[in-house]
Amino acid sequence: MKVRKTYPLYINPMLGTATFGNAKFGRRINDATIGTIFDCSLSELKDNLRMLIGIGYSVSQRKY
């Protein structure tokens, strides 16, 4: 059985920002009340980020 890594993607439409990171970032952002959190595979993450950049969101990566 292959274990696939997931990346949390946090989207805040009020600020127009999208942030993604590793599992440690996912645990830290888990209690966010504003915005939406998605767990994505690597290919889904790339597609989502391309779409968000096209819309005009600013994207950043967090490692903590």
Summary tags:
64 residues, four-stranded mixed sheet, 2 helices
What is the fold's blueprint, element by element?
Layout: E1 7-12, E2 17-21, H1 23-29, E3 36-40, H2 42-55, E4 58-62
Parallel strand pairs: 2-4
Antiparallel strand pairs: 1-2, 1-3
Summarize the structure.
This protein has helices at residues 23-29, 42-55; strands at residues 7-12, 17-21, 36-40, 58-62.
* Broad structural category: alpha+beta
H-E order: EEHEHE
In quaternary terms, these chains amount to single chain
The span between the termini is: 28 Å
Low-confidence stretches: none
Calculate Rg over CA atoms: 12 Å
Q: How much helix, percentage-wise, in residues?
A: 25-40%
- Apparent shape: globular
Can you count the helices?
A: 2
Average pLDDT figure: 91
DSSP E strands, number: 4
Widest sheet, order of strands: 3-1-2-4
